[in-house]
């Protein structure tokens, strides 16, 4: 009995999300609140799953159906054609009593069966409708009768007010393309970059593959497509990301920037408080499925057509290294964030008994960390550099940390996300706009090598002047998914939460709030030289990255749409011209396209270096070609790119199919020289557009500066470029370029200059753009990397007024989008 007495009176201080909790006095209250929170979560999930499963119907529709059946029964009508009588016979008779109750139960069971059958029919009908992709092939500005009929049916069957995953059960599965067609498209894509001899040899290997192995491998893919939700996505995640043993830094992460021209507050702690609160609000809405599914919008002259596009959103899970492969661990409801500042780690609670802490309370926590004078302990400052090491090395070292510093490691890995309070400013400056933007991008992509925990799904970096940025690990989600979250964060923290006149978060501090918990690491002696070695490798990798960011303000999406062209295709063809002038040759070009029209779809590759694009580039470099001829070739290249993009979106791309075939061949231990050659290719130009998906969150016309400036990624090849771009409003395009300084063939700034010139030269082919730039003739391979500086001097004499984009534009004054 004394043991029970000691247990009841036992007082112990526990750390819960950074707060000291006394369990003796409020124990019953804490148990009650804990149980209440648990049941609320379970009930909320049950409700969400149930509503998602029955959509586009609703529980109210079941009640209406049951009432109609009861009314018909009261009027002595039998809408069930005798089924309810058979159901009544199966129910217990209760000694002849409760006759009306048996009738009501029979009606309820029949209504439920009929309701379920109708819902299943609606799901099947919607899945069949969404399997139609003919709308993608419609010429811009026109719509055929079948597509109009299909659109009307989609509107009818898609229902109203959907939740996040309401359409998940209705999405079709990604089809397995015809292997003969895939090989044909592949050969077509490599023809512009191969010599005649190399292409003929590749064609021979392709024919041998089709004759000997293709049918068997294809059969396994069809089997997987029938059994699994998606025939390629899980393999893509595992073999491309989780089984890779390279460093995550630069190789597997990308970054997202803050607003380019404005900073809502210069107070670092205030910006961190609002941003963390907004991110956790996003998680809350995501858990409750209160975020509507993304709808793909296609503009036509006479109507706006939409197609349901479910974004498979999930709040970022951390990545754990379990050699090999790594493992993505999903955290259910983490209630703290891990914070890094001046070499020290902290655990900051984000919730109280009443729910999520206010932005002002979070600001108070971050300000305490900024003012804490305690120094970092030996080797603690550079500990996070271990996460930049090769995965096998980090796996072994993590086991040592887990044995000696399990609590601190668990606090970091179990956090909702990682926050880095940087001691340096960042962002665009008027004194040196080019260098400041380049440094901003580099800080987000690589940092200092020890101020990011790269295993975490993302690191929120808050700089000393209030600038924000996100460094995202790639395996858990592609850029449109994290971009969706980032748009919500920027819009919420700036427009909804806001700041007071003195720059602080709105609200009042909480004097009763416990201080953040400092994390202490018991580091074994053998890990100290490993930290130094990892830091040296991280600094080498970071120092080798050449980042260049520039806003192109001469024209933007508005001008391109006035030319009746796709903005993305316009940029992609112009990039081919820029890259040819930079390197003097064509190369395989990787452009990411989304396959979210299918269940659990991720990405597909658009091979943007086409024969049509090469013909246009050659014409632009030929003095004998007229502007009319070049314009005609440019339109052909744009149309070809649009066809490839639509094929990729509709599941008829090349690379994911060939990737899945290669994985099957490895499982079967079949040697395929053709597939081996395909997957030994080098992508010297990797490109991506960062879309703005939630335009309703931003008022581009009244607040044109409050638009995300996009983000970037590292190059896919040691001698290649990584190029991303975002259309900021209607009149600005921001480019993010990366390459490696160790390469003598690449230069990010040189390519940036070629991109500016290429865009101006292409625009000058159109009547509306003739005042923007002038044509440059006969450069050929002489304008490549061997004479980049001379090329730039030549351009300066041609149109000097357009060489340097205004870093603080007021808009290009181009026409609005046509109706």
UniProtKB/TrEMBL annotation:
Location of the region described as Disordered in the Swiss-Prot/TrEMBL record: 777-819
InterPro entries: Carn_acyl_trans (IPR000542), CAT-like_dom_sf (IPR023213), Cho/carn_acyl_trans (IPR039551), Cho/carn_acyl_trans_2 (IPR042231), CPT_N (IPR032476)
Primary location group: mitochondrion
Transmembrane spans: 60-83, 104-126
UniProt-listed SUPFAM superfamilies: CoA-dependent acyltransferases
Top EC class of this enzyme: transferase
Catalytic reaction annotation: (R)-carnitine + hexadecanoyl-CoA = O-hexadecanoyl-(R)-carnitine + CoA
Subcellular location, record wording: Mitochondrion outer membrane
Domain Choline/carnitine acyltransferase positions: 175-756
Annotated metabolic or biological route of this protein: Lipid metabolism; fatty acid beta-oxidation
Extent of Polar residues compositional bias: 786-804
PROSITE patterns associated with the record: ACYLTRANSF_C_1 (PS00439)
Keywords: Acyltransferase, Fatty acid metabolism, Lipid metabolism, Membrane, Mitochondrion, Mitochondrion outer membrane, Transferase, Transmembrane, Transmembrane helix, Transport
GO BP field: carnitine metabolic process; fatty acid beta-oxidation; long-chain fatty acid transport
Active-site residues per Swiss-Prot or TrEMBL entry: 474
Pfam families reported for this sequence: Carn_acyltransf, CPT_N
GO molecular function: carnitine O-palmitoyltransferase activity
Family annotation (PANTHER family): CARNITINE O-ACYLTRANSFERASE (PTHR22589), CARNITINE O-PALMITOYLTRANSFERASE 1, BRAIN ISOFORM (PTHR22589:SF55)
Entry's family note: Belongs to the carnitine/choline acetyltransferase family.
Protein name: carnitine O-palmitoyltransferase
Species of origin: Orycteropus afer afer
């Amino acid at each position: 009995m004394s043991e029970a007495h000691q247990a009841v009176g036992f007082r112990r201080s526990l750390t819960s999300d950074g707060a000291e909790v006394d369990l003796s006095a409020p124990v019953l209250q804490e148990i009650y609140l804990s149980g209440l929170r648990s049941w609320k979560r379970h009930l909320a999930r049950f409700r969400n799953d149930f509503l998602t499963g029955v959509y586009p119907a609703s529980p109210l529709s079941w009640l209406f159906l049951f009432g109609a059946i009861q009314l018909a029964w009261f009027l002595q009508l039998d809408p069930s054609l005798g089924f309810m009588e058979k159901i009544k016979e199966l129910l217990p008779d209760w000694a002849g009593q409760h006759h009306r109750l048996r009738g009501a139960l029979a009606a309820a069971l029949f209504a439920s069966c009929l309701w379920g059958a109708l819902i299943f029919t609606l799901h099947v009908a919607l899945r069949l409708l969404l399997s139609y992709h003919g709308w993608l092939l419609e010429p811009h500005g026109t719509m055929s009768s079948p597509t109009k009929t299909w659109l009307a049916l989609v509107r009818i069957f898609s229902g109203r007010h959907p939740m996040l995953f309401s359409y998940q059960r209705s999405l079709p599965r990604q089809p397995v393309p015809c292997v003969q067609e895939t090989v044909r498209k592949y050969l077509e894509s490599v023809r512009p970059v191969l010599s005649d001899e190399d292409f003929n040899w590749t064609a021979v290997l392709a024919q041998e593959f089709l004759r000997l192995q293709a049918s068997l491998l294809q059969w396994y893919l069809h089997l997987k497509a029938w059994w699994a939700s998606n025939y390629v996505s899980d393999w893509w995640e595992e073999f491309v990301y989780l089984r890779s043993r390279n460093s995550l830094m630069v190789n597997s992460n990308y970054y997202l920037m803050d607003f380019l021209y404005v900073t809502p507050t210069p107070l670092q702690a205030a910006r961190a408080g609002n941003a963390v609160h907004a991110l956790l609000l996003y998680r809350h809405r995501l858990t409750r499925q209160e975020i509507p599914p993304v709808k793909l919008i296609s503009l036509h002259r006479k109507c706006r057509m939409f197609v349901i596009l479910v974004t498979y959103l999930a709040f970022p899970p951390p990545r754990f290294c379990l050699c090999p492969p790594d493992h993505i661990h999903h955290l259910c409801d983490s209630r703290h964030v891990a914070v890094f500042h001046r070499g020290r780690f902290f655990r900051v609670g984000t919730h109280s008994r009443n729910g999520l802490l206010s932005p002002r309370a979070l600001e108070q926590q971050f300000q305490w960390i900024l003012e804490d004078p305690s120094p970092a302990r030996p080797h603690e400052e550079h500990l996070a550099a271990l996460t930049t090491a090769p995965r096998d090395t980090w796996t072994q070292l993590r086991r040592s940390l887990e044995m000696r510093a399990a609590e601190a490691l668990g606090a970091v890995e179990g956090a909702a996300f990682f926050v880095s309070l940087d001691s340096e400013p960042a962002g665009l400056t008027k004194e040196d706009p080019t260098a400041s933007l380049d440094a901003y991008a580099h800080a987000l992509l690589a940092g200092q090598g020890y101020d990011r925990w790269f295993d975490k799904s993302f690191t929120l970096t808050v700089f000393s002047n209030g600038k924000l940025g996100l460094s995202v690990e790639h395996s858990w989600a592609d850029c449109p998914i994290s971009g969706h979250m980032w748009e919500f964060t920027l819009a919420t923290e700036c427009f909804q939460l806001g700041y007071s006149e003195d720059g602080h978060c709105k609200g009042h501090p909480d004097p009763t709030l416990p201080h953040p918990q400092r994390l202490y690491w018991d580091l074994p002696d053998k890990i100290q030289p490993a930290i130094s070695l990892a830091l040296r490798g991280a600094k080498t990798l970071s120092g080798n990255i050449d980042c260049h960011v520039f806003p192109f303000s001469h024209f933007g999406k508005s001008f391109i749409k006035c030319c009746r062209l796709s903005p993305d295709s316009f940029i992609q063809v112009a990039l081919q011209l820029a890259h040819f002038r930079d390197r003097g040759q064509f190369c395989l070009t990787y452009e990411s396209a989304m396959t979210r029209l299918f269940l659990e779809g991720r990405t597909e590759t658009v091979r943007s270096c086409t024969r049509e694009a090469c013909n246009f580039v050659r014409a632009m470099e030929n003095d004998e070609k007229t502007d009319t001829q070049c314009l005609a070739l440019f339109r052909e290249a744009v149309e070809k790119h649009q066809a490839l993009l639509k094929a990729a979106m509709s599941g008829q791309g090349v690379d994911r199919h060939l990737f899945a075939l290669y994985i099957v061949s490895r499982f079967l231990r079949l040697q395929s020289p053709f597939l081996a050659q395909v997957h030994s290719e080098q992508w010297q130009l990797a490109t991506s557009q960062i879309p703005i998906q939630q335009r309703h969150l931003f008022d581009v016309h009244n607040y044109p500066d409050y638009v995300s400036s996009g983000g970037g990624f590292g190059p896919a090849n040691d001698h290649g470029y990584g190029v991303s771009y975002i259309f900021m409003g209607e009149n600005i395009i921001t480019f993010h370029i990366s390459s490696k300084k160790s390469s003598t063939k690449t230069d990010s700034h040189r390519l940036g200059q070629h991109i500016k010139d290429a865009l101006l030269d292409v625009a000058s082919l159109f009547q509306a753009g003739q005042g923007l730039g002038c044509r440059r003739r006969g450069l050929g391979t002489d304008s490549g990397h061997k004479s980049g500086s001379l090329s730039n001097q030549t351009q300066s004499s041609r149109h000097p007024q357009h060489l340097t984009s205004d870093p603080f534009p007021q808009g290009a004054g181009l026409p609005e989008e046509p109706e």
